[in-house]
Design a protein that fits this description.
By secondary structure, the chain is α/β, with parallel strands linked by helices. It has a seven-stranded mixed beta sheet. α3 links the parallel β1 and β2.
Length: 279
């Protein structure tokens, strides 16, 4: 009796299961859908190839131009007018700043081009540790007079004799402004106690006060005329913002692909720019 009931149940349920396709079986795509997918795939491949070819051609053109500039075949780049570049800053990504060969080569090129005042920056302070042992212990007073600042600038001897170098890091940025604000607050409180014992007044700090405080804590310095950035990002990588009010910023790509012609071109392009200073 049990066997007959089971056979009857299977007989009744078989048509139900026969009407449902197995889960791994899919319907065939229609011809228009196949054509659309093939067209979209072909379009994507075409765009990818065009962009790749454009990038390759652009890269080759840049390398060719840098080679022609380095060889002196382009006449307009032969005589650079560097009178507008009183102070040049170079920002390097901290991971690339450990490449001492490239850094020394960059300084030699700048020295050859006639740049006398250079500021090197990386966020982690790698360049500070690299160059501080080879820098004189006293400040270069002549450079301070020339740049109209009393910054923490030191003369670099060794292989780059004659170039004035300043090395700063991320600690001269946010930490520097915090130290300057703390100094201003301390001076205000001390002055208020002695001169205004019973008078409550709101603190009033001017831009001149902040600049003086930054110099007092060793974080002041001249504003670079031109900032060259070597790194993956198109930004100043944390360079002290209060020193970039009128600075022209140029992204130079990674340090490992640094080229002499690219530096010459950057200095030439800056010399031809016209800057309007607001009043």
């Amino acid at each position: 009796m049990g066997t007959k009931a089971m056979d009857a149940f299977v007989a009744n349920e078989t048509p139900v299961f026969m009407n449902k396709p197995p889960p791994h079986v899919f319907k065939l795509m229609s011809l228009p859908s196949i054509i659309i997918k093939l067209a979209l795939g072909l379009l994507w491949c075409t765009i990818h190839v065009v962009i790749s070819l454009f990038s390759l051609c652009s890269h080759l053109m840049v390398n060719l131009e840098c080679y022609l500039i380095s060889s002196g075949l382009l006449r307009k780049y032969r005589n650079l007018q560097l009178s507008r570049i009183k102070y040049l800053a170079v920002v390097v990504d901290s991971r690339e700043a450990k490449n001492t060969v490239k850094i020394n080569q960059l300084l030699c090129w700048l020295k050859t081009l006639g740049v006398k005042y250079v500021c090197l920056y990386d966020f982690d302070g790698v360049l500070k540790k690299l160059f501080e042992p080879s820098m004189n212990g006293s400040k270069d007073e002549k450079s301070g007079d020339y740049l109209d600042v009393s910054a923490n600038i030191k003369a670099l001897d060794c292989c780059h004799k004659g170039m004035t170098l300043e090395c700063i890091s991320g600690s001269d940025g946010k930490e520097g402004i915090a130290k300057a604000a703390s100094l201003l607050c301390s001076n205000y409180l001390n002055g208020d106690r002695s001169a205004h014992e019973n008078v409550k007044s709101e603190p009033l700090f001017t831009e001149t006060d902040m600049a003086s405080a930054l110099k007092s804590v060793g974080c002041g310095g001249p504003e670079p005329d031109l900032l060259l950035v070597y790194g993956p990002a198109r930004c100043h990588l944390g360079f002290p913002a209060w020193r970039l009010r009128y600075t022209e910023i140029m992204h130079m790509g990674p340090l490992k692909s640094m080229k002499y012609g690219a530096i010459v071109k950057a200095l030439y392009n800056f010399s031809k720019k016209h800057q309007n200073y607001g009043k």
